[in-house]
Structures are given as C-alpha cells and as structure tokens.
Amino acid sequence: MEYTPISPFMRRISHAHLRVVERPEATHSAKPVSKWELLRDLSKAQAAFGISDRDLTVLQGLLSFFPEDTLGGDAEMVVFPSNKAICERLNGMACSTMRRHLARLVTGGLLMRRDSPNGKRYSRRHGAERVTFGFDLSPLHCRAEEIARAAESVREGDEQIRRLRETISLMRRDMAALAAFGKEIHPGHSLWDQLRDTAALTTSSLRRKLPYDELANIRRNLERLLDQARNIIDGTTTEEMITSGARSEQHYHNSNADTVVLEPALEQGGAAGVEPEGVDGVLVAEHSDLVTPPPPKIPLHLVISACSELKTFYPGEIRHWHQLHDAACHVRPAMGISVSAWEEAQRFMGPEQASIVLAAILQRFDSIRSPGGYLRALTTKAAAGEFSCGPMVMALIARRDVA
Predict the structure, then answer these.
(1) Nearest to 66, CA basis, from 146, 132, 5
(2) Which 3 state secondary structure label does DSSP give 130?
(3) Distance (Å, rounded) from C-alpha 399 to C-alpha 403?
(4) What are the percentages of helix, strand and coil residues in the chain, rounded to 5?
C-alpha cells in the first residue's frame, strides 16, 4: 500500500495510519547487503544513476546513521537524524546544499521520505509496534542487484579501456622502431616520417582519458600504418633481417658466459623451488626506479618461426609486437602462469621480450616442470641485467634444424 503523507496540521493520528508508514513487507525476506559495498558499487556506477559525488557524500552520511553493517533482513531501514545532525556528520555542509542533494537522491529512487504529521523525524513505540519517520533506505537495498550489475559493467569497460591503451602503447613502440629501421633500409619513403609523427601524436593522445571508441579508432589507424610499413620491409629485406638479427643475438650470447641457453638447469627442477613472494619482494625493493626496456633487436618473424607452437593456441595473425603480446596474454592462463609472475616479467623484461620468453616456454612446455617458477627465475636474471631472450630463440631454431 502506498503511503500518502498526512498533513502537518493534523496533530492526532490513528494506529492504522502509523502502520501504513512501515516499510513494505517484501523487503523483509530480501538478501542482506553490506551497506558500504553497496555504496562503493554505486560510486562506481554513479553516472548510470544520474548522481554526483556530492550526492554520494550525503548518502554516505545517512548510511553512517544506520547502526547495522548490512541493509535488509529484519532490520528497520529508516534513519531519522535531524538536518543539523546530518550537516555536522558532513563536516559542516550548508543545510540548503544538503537538502538539495537529498532531494536528488529521492528523485533518483535511492531514498524515500517517510514524513511524520508534523514534518519531524523521530522513532516512537506504540505497544509492540515501533514507528519511525525519516529517510527510508529500503529503495537503495531493493536496487542492490541493479547497482551491482551496473558497477560490474563499468569495471569491465574500464578493463577493456586499460587493455586497449596497453595495446596502443605497444603499437606506438612498434611504429617508432619501424620508422627508424625503415629509414635506414629504404630512405626517402614518405611513410617513415608519417610513422614517426603518428607515434608522437599517439603519445600525446595517451596522456588524456579517451573513451573506448576513440581509442579503437586510434588502434585501427595504427594497424593500417603498421601493415603498410611491414609490407614494405618484408618485401625488400626479409633475408637481411634474419641474418643480421641472428648474428647480433649470437654475438650477445657468445659474449655473456653467464647466459644459459633455455636455462636447462631450471627446466626440470630449479624453478620449482623459486618462492614467488621472495622474488617479488626482492625485485620491488631493489628496482623500484626501473625504466621499461627497449624492444628486442631480434626480428619478430624469426621469433614466430622458432616458436611455432604459439600458432596452435592462438588463431590470430602475428605480424607486429603488439600482436605477439596479445597472443602471450591469451595463452598465459592455460600455461598455469600467474598474473603476478606475468606482470613482473613485463616490468623487468619489457612487454615484447616477456612475450618472446612466454612463447619460448610454450615451445618447450613438455620439458619445463614449473613454467611460472621458470618465468620468475628468468625475471630475476633480467632485473639484474643478466638476461637476453636472443639465445633462447636461437637455441630453439638450432634444435628445430637438427630435428
């Protein structure tokens, strides 16, 4: 039954009217919800409900007057603080401002006024019945599932934007590297200056909070330019890139006696004993000022040739470093490698080199006892400046050729 406020001029009220102001019976059996978790979800999805930060501040103040930690169950969900008490709880907010935000919450269907005959807020007991006049929080509780769904939708959107920004950042690095390399092997082509300028503009764009649609347009434009550049480079100097890349990485391998090809000592046992917490603690403590490493010098198609297993698990095309990173992120969960191990590897190796290492581990997956521990061990070496992915790739190629 809908309650119709009684005129404040009426000073006498019957018990029948008093029973009308009680909250609906349907809310008694509803599932209890943490009021602070509900407030956090509403804060995340506030745009979907048309409320502002100041509205949420007033709602938080009202919730603080509710004695229980959860809304629902058998608890009475009406709070009855005076305007003065609310303003004091809100660190001295002006009463007119507070009333305006309260009205927005009521209009938005998150609160309901339970008016007394004289307009005051209070709680009275009439025999076995308790009657309370004030602000009813039951609409907020009734919409808890709706609010939770809206908040989850916002979080999913934020995650999509985060991943898209990460992909665009990798594409920008691809573009800058291809512009420099293309100018060396094919000077005079106007595309290289276009790549360089686009990479600079992309850097500026990533400093702003762009919506998903604008980021998607940037990605499509970068993919088009990267494909043009890769077609030019692949069509003129493929064999030269393979030879120079192999020579460079072999030189690095021969000059670093501490680098073990595919780290055989770790494959069957050593990595299994690595403690993730210990590794993380050391890395964070000793390398808090780390700068992201530059992209690897080894050609990408050489990596794809050496790590052919990746194509079995990832159906997408891999022609650029950001696509290799996307493939690595795709297969990482199936390999049993934790998110923390993967993030640490990207932090200390760089996303491109970490993706190469993951592809190499996948290639030798049957002979590696603990892929996660193996990756953490290599991350520790990378953090100390004692690791390059080149020897791993060259060892896989040599193994393939022997087979």
Answers:
(1) 132
(2) strand
(3) 6
(4) 65, 5, 30
* Average pLDDT, integer, range 360-383: 91
What's the Cα-to-Cα distance from 115 to each of 4, 23, 95, 134, rounded to whole Å?
Answer: 9, 13, 18, 6
With the C-alpha atoms ordered 302, 336, 332, 274, is the resulting torsion angle positive or negative? negative
What is the pTM assigned to this prediction?
A: 0.57
Buried b (16+ CB within 10 A) or exposed e, 165-187: bbbbbbbbbbbbbbbebbbeebe
Sorting pLDDT into bands at 50, 70 and 90, what band is 360? very high
Alpha helices in 256-370 (DSSP H): 264-267, 276-286, 300-306, 309-313, 321-331, 339-349, 351-363
Alpha carbons 397 and 403: distance in angstroms, whole number: 10
Give the whole-angstrom CA distance, residue 243 versus residue 226: 22
H or E segment and range at residue 402? helix 390-402
Please state, in angstroms and as integers, the Cα–Cα distance from residue 218 to each residue in 145, 205, 275, 371, following that order: 35, 9, 41, 35
Give the CB-side neighbour count of residue 323, counting CA atoms within 13 A. 18
- The three-point CA angle 151-155-161 to 5° equals 145
Three-state SS letters, 215-265: HHHHHHHHHHHHHHHHHHHHHHHHHHHHHHHHHHHHHHHHHCCCCCCCCHH
Model pLDDT, residue 354: 92
Span 54-113, pLDDT tens digits: 999 989 888 888 888 888 766 678 888 888 888 888 888 898 888 899 889 988 888 888
